[in-house]
Amino acid sequence: MSGLDVALPITTDRLVLRAHRLDDLGDLARFHGDPEVVRFVPWPVRDRAATEETLRVKLTQTELLAPGQWLVLAVEVRETGRVVGEVLLKWASEAQGELGFAFARDAQGRGYAEEAARAVLRLAFDDLGFHRVSAVVVEGNEASVRLLGRLGFRQEARHAEAVHFKGAWVTQLVFAQLADEWRST
């Protein structure tokens, strides 16, 4: 199995999805350090130094060379040049992916997450030929559940208290979409 060809950047009407750069640090630190933003994502609240350390890893996550790898893209608003979020696509296994996203609190509610996620789903289904893309959400993250619904995902499973997450047992909701479903939306 060879790597998947990902052409970057990906542009939408309002956004540029691109590889991270070192000068993204200020924008990333703003939302990586916000307890409300990271409440449902698998990383802790980060100070600037921890965000920089993580950013250095993200600089290498720009290709999908083998299953198990994550493609991590900065979501930049074209008009301002500000990075307001991140969208992720994992090459989970043959023809399968996993979607993830996180956005700055002041950028939420503007449709940026939906616009970025749709672009990544186009990449997954139309360009990379994925058969299925899933998303895992911590129960209680209603904004992500609503977003996945707008994107055409359906809930496949509810795993009660299945994961120890940030000091507590949490319930995970598993959502998915098949390529045929994507094409019919």
UniProtKB/TrEMBL annotation:
Domain spans labelled N-acetyltransferase: 15-180
UniProtKB keywords: Acyltransferase, Transferase
Any one Pfam family match given in the protein's UniProt record, by short name: Acetyltransf_3
Record lineage: Bacteria, Bacillati, Actinomycetota, Actinomycetes, Propionibacteriales
Highest rank taxon of the organism: Bacteria
Protein's UniProt name: GNAT family N-acetyltransferase
Gene3D superfamilies, sorted: 3.40.630.30
Any one GO molecular-function label of the UniProt entry: acyltransferase activity
InterPro entries noted in UniProt: Acyl_CoA_acyltransferase (IPR016181), GNAT_dom (IPR000182), N-acetyltransferase (IPR051531)
EC number, as in UniProt: 2.3.-.-
Signal sequence bounds: none
SUPFAM superfamilies with a match to the protein in the record: Acyl-CoA N-acyltransferases (Nat)
Source species: Nocardioides zeicaulis
PROSITE patterns registered for this protein in UniProt: GNAT
